[in-house]
Design brief:
Length: 310
């Protein structure tokens, strides 16, 4: 492992402390002075499921392990290494950065997710990163149903130096987005980040609203939105599956950002979502700081999940 890879793994390890502790303590208690046999693999599969890897991913990982080590003695560290490799193989296909198309200007990103998932702070972190690269970024306070959401985005806009296009509480989000796209185009902004409401109390209203926003975007630019990011709170565990389904039904989700991995023992849900949906995971949040949105690195994540730094 290179120094760079070690740094990435160490960063994930700090962020995934609770998930890692649950899994690694389980592995250690299972495999100390015991042989890796069928019963042991069944217990390991159950442990992986309780860590939110999901039934499919847990079965896949343990079956691959069975092919390599069944009926052989194995130390806990060896098992962790094998598990890390198998987890990495599951998540590697979805570990993809968000690539901006320079021919699309502004590059319009629709950001969705349930209230409380970390949408607004994720938007701020993304904007801050792109601002640091010298790009011009505009923000749209499209969650017009909550005054607090509008105010929060305005605060982040001021901190990151990004103009925020906002209306009044209760305004039509689609109309606001239409005006924002016109303004962003006129000002030749590089990126337009659009916040949206995340009310799941009435799924039909949520889907209808998102669908309308997309329709209106396409009246200005028939290729928009150029990316649709779903911000997912890792602490919800297996409930994440139903949330992905709901937003996929409403809009064509092109990528995900997984937040609050530092505050959850449910980091395994990233593996489960990768196995089930195959949607690219662009980044993960491992803290509250502006720099705590990290590119999703499959190998570093997998090794951190099982408590390995290098």
């Amino acid at each position: 492992m290179t120094d760079e890879e070690s740094d990435k793994s160490g960063g994930f390890l700090r962020g995934l402390g609770r998930s890692s502790a649950k899994l690694t303590s389980g592995i250690t208690s299972l495999f100390t002075k015991r042989k890796l046999d069928r019963d042991m693999l069944d217990e390991l599969e159950e442990l992986l499921i309780t860590c939110d890897l999901g039934v499919g991913a847990a079965a896949r990982v343990t079956e691959q392990l069975a092919k390599k080590r069944l009926d052989k003695d194995a130390t806990p560290d060896e098992i962790k290494g094998f598990l890390a490799d198998e987890i990495a193989s599951v998540v590697d296909p979805v570990a993809r950065p968000l690539v901006l198309d320079p021919t699309r200007r502004p590059f319009v990103i629709l950001v969705c997710g349930v209230n409380g998932s970390g949408k607004t702070t994720t938007i701020a972190k993304l904007a801050n990163g792109w601002r640091g690269e010298g790009k011009s970024v505009m923000l749209v306070a499209g969650d017009t149903f909550r005054a607090a959401a509008i105010e929060q985005l305005q605060v982040w806009g001021a901190r990151t130096g990004c103009p925020v296009i906002a209306g009044e509480t209760g305004d039509d989000p689609a109309g606001l987005v239409f005006d924002a796209m016109k303004q962003a185009d006129a000002e030749r902004a590089d990126i337009l980040l659009v916040d949206t409401a995340g009310r799941l109390q009435n799924k039909q209203d949520l889907m209808a609203e998102l669908e309308k926003v997309v329709r209106v975007m396409r009246k200005v630019d028939d290729t928009a939105p150029h990316a649709v990011l779903l911000v997912m709170d890792a602490t919800v565990g297996q409930n994440a599956h139903s949330q992905v389904e709901i937003f996929k039904d409403a809009v064509d989700v092109t990528g995900m950002v997984i937040t609050k991995l530092d505050g959850s023992a449910k980091g395994g849900v990233v593996v489960a979502l990768a196995e089930k949906f195959g949607i690219p995971v662009h980044a993960v949040g491992v803290g509250e700081g502006m720099d705590d949105l990290r590119p999703f690195e499959a190998r570093a994540f997998a090794r951190a999940m099982v408590g390995l730094r290098s």
